[in-house]
Amino acid sequence: MMTPMVELKGLRKVFGRLEVLRGIDMSVDKGQILSLIGPSGSGKSTLLRSVNLLETPTGGEVWLDGTRVNADLKGLAYERHVNGLRREMQMVFQQFNLFPHLTVMQNLTIGPMKLLGLSKAEAEARGEELLCKVGLAEKALAYPARLSGGQKQRVAIARALAMRPKVMLFDEVTSALDPELVDEVNAVMKDLAAEHITMLIVTHEMRFAAEVTDWAVFMDEGMVVEEGPPDRLFSDPEHPRTRSFLRKHLGA
Amino acid sequence: MDLDLIMRTTQFLGEAALMTLALTAGSLVLGILAAGAIVVARLSRWTAVRALVAAYVSVMRGTPLLVQLFVLYFGGPQIGLTLSPFAAGVVTFGLNIAAYMSEGLRGAILSVDKGQTEAARTLGFGRLATMFHFILPQCAALMIRSLGVNAVILIKGTALISTIGVVDLTYSAQRIMTSSSQPFEVFGIAAAYYMLIVFGLTRIMRLAERRFALPDEARA
Amino acid sequence: MNLDFSVVPPFAGALAIGALWTILITALAGAISLIVGIGLALARIYAPGWIRALLAVPVFIILGTPLLLQLFLVYYGLSQLGLRLPAFFTGVVGLGLHYAVYNADILRAAILSVEQGQYEAGRALGFGRGATLRHFVLPQALYRALPQIGNNILVLLKDSVLVSAIGIMELVLSAQLAISRTFRPFEFYISVAAIFYLINLALEWALARITRRTEAMR
Ligand SMILES: Nc1ncnc2c1ncn2[C@@H]1O[C@H](COP(=O)(O)OP(=O)(O)O)[C@@H](O)[C@H]1O
Ligand SMILES: [Mg+2]
């Protein structure tokens, strides 16, 4: 059997007295594209952020390509372990989080140069290639403040790809965008899907999820309620909570 | 108006101004270094260190500067710490302003959006590298501005050194005020020197601030 | 090391009296700083140009020079002008005026931040210019400025020790009297610092309470 690219076993996360994730089991194969849907506050962001340890899981296990992510290490050793693993799973945020003091090209090259040891020339070659891919080659020298929201998000995706990660995590990357800018970002993600990069996508756009992803997971109140191929899950949900959620979001 | 007195006072206070300047410079260097150390300590992962430094800042801000100076200068010898008045001034003023400066520096760091840290950590940068490559460049100008505000407070605070007999601007001015009968003229000249020092320092700080400011195109 | 804090309690009464003077000086100077501060803020917004220009000079000087030096000026200057006033009075007024300038800065910004909408609403109700200012603009500006003014009062509390330099009785001076009898500066100045820290805490707590209570009115 193939090792899954990402595997969660009994993942739990508690904030103070609020139990946000209550034992999540999930497995994503290499090249699989998974969408995570569910009402606001159901724990989707926390799940993604637990995968790359922006949140420290309270319990359970996170595995990346056969390596235990939330390893039982302390202090500096833990720090080094986490920094190394994070490079292999890049995240794209709802709020872009581009570095405003760096140009678009510098946003793309700083990680590969400082962390992966690429030379400036190599990093810029990689950066140019990626900017072409997201259709922003002419913006290389611009600062993020001069870009539209859609452009910012495409740069953020390119910045993440520049690290050549094994997994891409997307957290509602089009939610902060004006409606007319959503498509340009979705188009970039569709291209990535065609290349079979492993992706976990949190989204509110059911049509996009149905079109692009090959497995959909519905979460509510910190648990996986139901999962399956998106076509099946969206057209014929079994669980009443899934049904009522979809009724609202498919706008039927 | 007695022109001769004014000439002599200007010259006399000019020498005292050098003392004020030296005191300010020494305290400023010590203050900025100590403030940096305090900020680092406040970001420490050990709760005890954080609590200790927070208590230090609270005490420095919660008690009068003059009393701090007296504890060190008059009380110091009792615990084996005998300092010259000038040294006692530099240490007291430096360590005091450091507490205020550290708050400004910390505020500047906290003013950078949390998403920046998350983005840098997600790329795989460690805590130190994140601070160095992403947080500091974004808040350096703000840090310098707050250091400048505190430096001006420091300059005026150095006047307290006159209470332990160091011949600074305020000490000399007070001396002449008691012996001459022209307190307003004397004050005016001393004030001019103080404002000259304040002005000079503000200029330097403003230049530094501009040097570290983000380019215009990078600002939203 | 040679410390003996048992020398302090016999002087507890003297220190307590010194502390009361400190509190009194802070309260009086604080009141002056607030009242004059409001006047100064209003003048800087509404007074004719020449008055504003005239006011700019003392403001500039007060912001740019040490409080201690200013206290010396008030002390020696007033007597030079033939005004024989008690030192206590000159100290409190000097302290108050100094902080009035700082308060005026804050109040000016606060008044300008309330001004437009409220002013128009007041005028629309039929209130005159002055009445609108008094009943609508100023109270809100005060509430808004409260946290920062409170902060200034805390700084004033600690700066009140400077009046000891012109011979006014307060905590530091009462400690100095005790030290001149016991030769124990460390114990007494540490005690003074501790008392100040406590007064400061109490004042901070009170100010935070007032600020919280008036939050809704901002
Ligand atoms: N850092 C935090 N501290 C406390 N509560 C949090 C924190 N982050 C998220 N939560 C809570 O966890 C729950 C799930 O949040 P989140 O994972 O963001 O949900 P979703 O992304 O599905 O909308 C919410 O109730 C939220 O308020
Ligand atoms: Mg979310």
TrEMBL record, chain B:
Entry keywords, A to Z: Amino-acid transport, Cell membrane, Membrane, Transmembrane, Transmembrane helix, Transport
One of the record's GO cellular component terms: ATP-binding cassette (ABC) transporter complex
GO biological process, one term: amino acid transport
Entry similarity comment: Belongs to the binding-protein-dependent transport system permease family. HisMQ subfamily.
Coiled-coil residues: none
Subcellular location: Cell inner membrane; Cell membrane
Chain segments annotated as transmembrane: 16-41, 53-73, 79-101, 147-166, 186-205
All copies of domain ABC transmembrane type-1, residue ranges: 13-205
Cited PANTHER family: L-CYSTINE TRANSPORT SYSTEM PERMEASE PROTEIN TCYL (PTHR30614:SF0), MEMBRANE COMPONENT OF AMINO ACID ABC TRANSPORTER (PTHR30614)
Record organism: Paracoccus lichenicola
Protein name: ABC transporter permease subunit
A UniProt-annotated Pfam family: BPD_transp_1
UniProtKB/TrEMBL annotation, chain C:
GO molecular function, one term: transmembrane transporter activity
InterPro entries membership: AA_ABC_transptr_permease_3TM (IPR010065), ArtM/GltK/GlnP/TcyL/YhdX-like (IPR043429), MetI-like (IPR000515), MetI-like_sf (IPR035906)
Biological process terms in GO annotation: amino acid transport
Chief location bin: membrane
Keyword Cell inner membrane assigned: no
Transmembrane segments: 12-42, 54-77, 83-102, 161-180, 186-208
Subcellular location: Cell inner membrane; Cell membrane
Cited Gene3D superfamilies: MetI-like
SUPFAM superfamilies for the chain: MetI-like
Membrane topology category: Multi-pass membrane protein
Limits of the ABC transmembrane type-1 domain: 19-207
Function comment: Part of the binding-protein-dependent transport system for glutamine; probably responsible for the translocation of the substrate across the membrane.
Name this protein carries in UniProt: ABC transporter permease subunit
Natural source organism: Paracoccus lichenicola
Organismal lineage: Bacteria, Pseudomonadati, Pseudomonadota, Alphaproteobacteria, Rhodobacterales
